[in-house]
């Protein structure tokens, strides 16, 4: 077991969902999925920039380990468009839309597909 600066107890579970550890959040044990591993990217050592984003999917909490978070934004539904066809060569099954926010563009990911929600 390794405990990094993020407070994640890392256990390196074997499995398709890329669960790398668990955290205790207000008394609830939450599994942590490393998005780098989920997208077949090389794993990075944990540092102070890493963050865990907590999602609630189908009444279950899961944490997504990300390299960093620069901003949290509330995007209105009318500011979300379908992704352009040109990105179809990327593994676009993970992408549900493109959001326009101020002068920036964000890619909206399908967390159900990423986390495997609904798979049995």
- Give the overall pLDDT as a whole number: 82
Number of strands: 9
Strand content: 35-45%
Query: In the CATH classification, which architecture of the largest domain applies?
Result: Beta Barrel
Class based on secondary structure composition and strand pairing: mainly beta
Kindly report the name of the CATH homologous superfamily of the largest domain: CheA-289, Domain 4
Name the shape in a single word: globular
What is the radius of gyration computed over CA atoms, rounded to a whole number of angstroms? 15 Å
Describe this structure in words.
The protein has 120 residues and is mainly β. It folds into 2 domains: 2-66, CheA-289, Domain 4 (OB fold (Dihydrolipoamide Acetyltransferase, E2P)), CATH 2.40.50.180; 77-115, no CATH class. The chain is built from 2 helices and 9 strands; from the N terminus they run ββββαβββββα. The strands form 2 sheets. The chain has a 6-stranded mixed beta sheet with strand order 1-2-3-4-6-5. The longest helix is centred in the last third of the chain and has 5 residues, at 111-115. It is globular and about 40 Å long.
List the helices and strands and how they pair.
Blueprint: E1 2-3, E2 9-10, E3 19-25, E4 28-34, H1 35-38, E5 51-57, E6 60-66, E7 80-81, E8 95-101, E9 104-109, H2 111-115
Parallel strand pairs: 4-6
Antiparallel strand pairs: 1-2, 2-3, 3-4, 5-6, 7-8, 8-9
For this entry, give a set of tags:
120 residues; 2 helices; mainly beta; OB fold (Dihydrolipoamide Acetyltransferase, E2P); single chain; 6-stranded mixed beta sheet; 3-stranded antiparallel beta sheet; 2 domains; 9 strands; globular
């Amino acid at each position: 077991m390794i405990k990094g600066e993020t407070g994640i107890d890392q256990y390196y579970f074997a499995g398709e969902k890329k669960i790398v550890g668990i955290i205790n959040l207000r008394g609830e044990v939450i599994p942590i999925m490393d998005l780098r591993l989920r997208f077949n990217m090389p794993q990075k050592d944990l540092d102070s920039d890493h963050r865990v984003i907590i999602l609630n999917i189908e009444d279950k909490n899961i944490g997504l380990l990300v390299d960093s978070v620069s901003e949290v934004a509330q995007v209105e539904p009318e500011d979300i468009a379908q992704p352009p066809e040109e990105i179809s060569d990327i593994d676009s099954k993970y992408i549900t839309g493109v959001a326009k926010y101020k002068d920036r563009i964000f890619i909206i990911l399908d967390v159900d597909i990423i986390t495997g929600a609904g798979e049995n």
